[in-house]
Request: fold
Amino acid sequence: MTVNARSRVGLGFDIHRLGRGRKLVLGGLEIECNVGLVGHSDGDVVLHAVTDAVLGACGMGDIGDHFPSSDPRWEGASSRVFLDAALDMADKAGFDFVNCDTIIVAERPHLGAWKEGIRSSLAGILGLGVDRVCVKAKTSEGLGHVGEGRAIEAHAVVMLRKRASTKKARKPAKRAAKKSR
Ligand code: MG
Reply:
């Protein structure tokens, strides 16, 4: 079997409770709603799931490892901060972004009218064309915490691709130097 180690898949998941007196932000887009997601940061489950997926694809742990909720710096922070940092880490480790697929599960508000806006917002944050980003919105059929309208959850998968190593390009030069001795 041939292994293509340059392609890396990452998986992310998150869930936050809904509460009054909070803004509802999904994929970096503020959505009109009388409830919002409760969290140490802005509670953006979509960006948290995508951040975890990016870190997972790079083998760099999870969002809690890098941005613990016990750290007062992240209180009320925009979750863009976390995703931007994860993207920067991935870039420094030599990865390019290929695509991102997400599912948001929410009973309320109904996200059908918002999902294209969330998609555009997420694509903008990732620096990708919208054709490489998908946002699917589902309900939980009335089941569980999400189905009862008490929480929203998000799932994300990302594909990254490692850039060709510059190390390989340097090897022939070293061998040539040895031969000339
Ligand atoms: Mg979270």
